[in-house]
Specification:
mainly alpha; NADH Oxidase; 2 strands; globular
Length: about 130
């Protein structure tokens, strides 16, 4: 797929086929995130891949509106720093990494969806994540 085709054809998908994503394709999607540009090459992210069905169900209950995660073959959790600078540099960088992964998934024919947010208090994660 050409870059422009991936950009114009990509859609948020919340209903998934019941089949695993090959490890090589997950690695390619993660590599797209890792190679995303970041301010001063800060790369303020960690990526956590979840493929275990029980963990996906639990993850789907952490954020409002994330029920679709339970039916996904894999979910990539993007973790950023708890504190950001006054310009929101980390949030911008995390957005670029997320979009790079979404486009890589589209290029591979894999439906994907982003879900920004901060877990409710006591439900895990670091405070201040996603707004």
């Amino acid at each position: 797929m050409q870059t422009w085709d991936a950009i114009t054809s990509r859609r948020n998908v919340r209903s998934f086929a019941d089949r695993p994503i090959p490890v090589a394709e997950l690695d390619q999607i993660l590599e797209a995130g890792r190679r995303a540009p970041s301010s001063q090459n800060w790369q303020p992210w960690d990526f956590i891949v979840v493929t275990d069905r029980g963990q996906l169900r639990e993850l789907a209950r952490v954020w409002r509106g994330a029920g679709h995660v339970a039916g996904s073959a894999a979910t990539i959790v993007v973790i950023g720093p708890a504190a950001d600078n006054e310009f929101g540099r980390a949030q911008f960088d995390l957005g670029q990494a997320t979009m790079a992964m979404l486009l890589a998934a589209a290029d591979l024919g894999i439906g994907s969806c982003h879900r920004p947010g901060t877990p409710p208090p006591g439900r895990g994660g670091r405070p201040g994540r996603g707004r």
